[in-house]
Design brief:
Chain lengths: 276, 314
């Protein structure tokens, strides 16, 4: 971890992402103004000392709404990545443990099938069936994460299965399942952390997009995507309505991607040799 | 090569069947009777029953699936619950907005990404490389619908720099392409950023290869060696990403179409969802998935053409 902070990319990205995690956390206890406080007299104020990001068409403080919106983005992304890891990694490990078997074939072709449905189409199908909500958005993004994690864990696990320490474990009489969890999994954690960071930022973008088109978070759940959708008709005379939630998305995603790239460089010995 | 293509064709067919099963049953579990929905709550039971049998809804699941799939194969997508016109007719006009838009964006993405990816690789570590890496990092982080929204509201409506949206049809191809340019550019931006980064790292990966050292020893400049020798080797990862991007562009077009008021499949699917016109949702999703699977197939075949070693891989 110490090494990571010596990389400028990681340090900058980590700081950017932490700002938003802290903002989301803080919003549970304190926001400058109440996000449900309608104050028509002060509607559409430009950013100022009292309202840092200005106010919206109902006089609500945009800064407070961006803080609360961070919660939704982070929660959706965390759960969606969690679904991908919890289901995808065991599937990938199982496929690798029985390489070339029917199980491997079924798992990998199933992955291909999910890949054929872009996340947005899965979301559209799910919303058409179950209705729009933040939970359904999480499921849609999560389903899309499963093949991503299955694929990279299978790929990494396959090369580990040929290594001597795995052979030693087999000679010691350990079964395939135990080897997968005790010897393979710890060795692919770095890879999973890198991919997790990247999927996390993709999840935030996807949540924003789904909420923007009305298939994600519904009123009254605050969300950056919904703030953008609400501002749509007013952008030409009150651009701050769209600029700040948009900047929040860019800032968070950029931070996470910088972190992910730095971690990949750190963990990937090939790249490290390259740099020297 | 023939064996390879046959194998790929088989897996293409299986993917299509699996996709159709998933979509059909996803829509099937929705509660509610489409016939009742079409006729309204005042319709008599007899009328509803008659319509049900006319639509084939009184049959079992399997015959209905068969009916839907065999219809799809013949270009019969069923009849819209809301508009009572064949879905195929509704789709026809709109495909010629969505598909050109996605292809246009794919073209733009390639045109932007290749030169700057090659530039960054050949000037590795210089300010040009840093600029490309920083710019593309930003390009990935910017949500394209946000960018589109600001472009329409500020550049088009406030400063009137270009048309705010709408589509004049293909009678005048120049006007049609003009109307698609801004949406395609917005759509291409994040994809071009990703592609440029992949291009750069794929080129850099080949730098340590023996053939590159030979090329340099023969007197090629770094850029000459990259363009003449490394590019073809770097094409495998680039093609993979290009194939994946097409599916993202097609799906992403759904949102961008909405912002630019383009009468494509995207706006159609949204209206269909709000009206619970499920047969339209079902058919359009199937059509989009079909397009994605076909593109994946084409990419696989192209791989084998670019890199003969892959033909032997199962």
């Amino acid at each position: 971890m110490k090494k990571a902070f010596k990389m400028p990319g990681f340090a900058i990205g980590f700081t950017m992402a932490t700002v938003f995690v802290l903002a989301a956390f803080l919003s549970f206890f304190w926001t400058p103004y109440a996000v449900d406080g309608v104050d028509i007299a002060n509607k559409l104020l430009a950013p100022s000392g009292t309202n840092w990001f200005g106010t919206d068409h109902l006089g609500r403080d945009i800064f407070s709404m961006v803080m609360v919106g961070a919660r939704t983005s982070i929660a959706v992304a965390i759960v969606a990545v969690g679904i991908g890891v919890l289901l995808g990694v065991p599937l990938g490990l199982a496929a690798a443990a029985r390489q070339g078997s029917l199980l491997d074939e079924v798992i990998m072709r199933g992955n291909d099938l999910i890949f054929a449905f872009p996340a947005l189409l899965i979301a559209i199908l799910i919303t058409a069936v179950f209705g729009a909500s933040a939970v359904n958005a999480i499921i849609a993004i999560g389903i899309f994460n499963i093949p991503v994690f299955a694929r990279i864990s299978r790929g990494a696990a396959l090369s580990l299965w040929t290594r001597d320490f795995v052979l030693a474990a087999r000679v010691a009489g350990k079964g395939r399942v135990r080897i997968s969890f005790e010897h393979i999994l710890p060795n692919i954690t770095n890879l999973l952390i890198v991919q997790g960071t990247i999927q996390f930022s993709l999840g935030i973008l996807a949540e924003a997009a789904l909420s923007y088109i009305g298939l994600g978070a519904q009123i009254p759940t605050p969300s950056w995507g919904r703030m953008l959708a609400d501002s749509q008709t007013m952008v030409s005379f009150a651009p701050h309505l769209a600029i700040f939630p948009g900047m929040a998305i860019i800032f968070t995603v950029l931070g996470l991607n910088l972190m992910g790239d730095a971690l990949r460089d750190l963990f990937d010995p090939k790249q490290r040799r390259d740099r020297q | 090569m023939l064996r390879f293509i046959l194998k790929r064709l088989l897996s293409l067919g299986l993917s299509l069947i699996a996709a159709s099963v998933v979509i059909f049953f996803a829509i099937e579990i929705i509660p509610g009777d489409p016939a009742r929905l079409m006729l309204g709550i005042n319709a008599t039971q007899d009328a509803v029953d008659a319509l049900r049998s006319q639509m084939g809804l009184d049959q079992g699941l399997l015959p209905r699936y068969w009916l839907w799939v065999s219809g799809l194969v013949q270009g019969d997508f069923g009849i819209s619950y809301t508009y009572r016109v064949p879905v195929a007719e509704m789709v026809q006009g709109r495909v010629w907005v969505s598909l050109p838009l996605a292809l246009y964006a794919l073209g733009l993405s390639t045109l932007i990404a290749f030169p700057i990816g090659i530039l960054a690789a050949s000037r590795r570590g210089t300010w040009a490389d840093w600029l490309v890496m920083g710019g593309t990092q930003l390009g990935i982080a910017i949500p394209n619908f946000w960018f589109a929204m600001l472009a329409v509201s500020l550049l088009a409506i406030k400063y009137r720099l270009f048309s705010a949206g709408g589509f004049p049809g293909w009678e005048d191809p120049f006007l049609a392409i003009k109307a698609l340019t801004m949406p395609a550019f917005v759509l291409a931006l994040p994809q071009a950023s990703i592609l440029a980064r992949v291009m750069r790292s794929a080129l850099l990966d080949t730098l340590s290869e023996d053939f590159m050292r030979t090329a340099r020893a023969k007197g090629r400049t770094v850029r000459g060696a990259l363009v003449h020798h490394a590019l073809r080797n770097a094409m495998i990862p680039v093609l993979t990403i290009l194939g994946l991007q097409f599916s993202f562009l097609l799906a992403g077009a759904i949102i961008i179409e909405k912002i630019f008021f383009l009468p494509g499949l995207g706006s159609m699917i949204f209206t269909a969802i709000t009206q619970r016109d499920l047969i339209v949702v079902e058919s359009v999703v199937m059509l989009l998935v079909f397009a994605v699977i076909i593109v994946t197939f084409i990419v696989d075949i192209t791989y084998a053409l670019v890199d003969p070693r892959l033909r032997r891989r199962p």
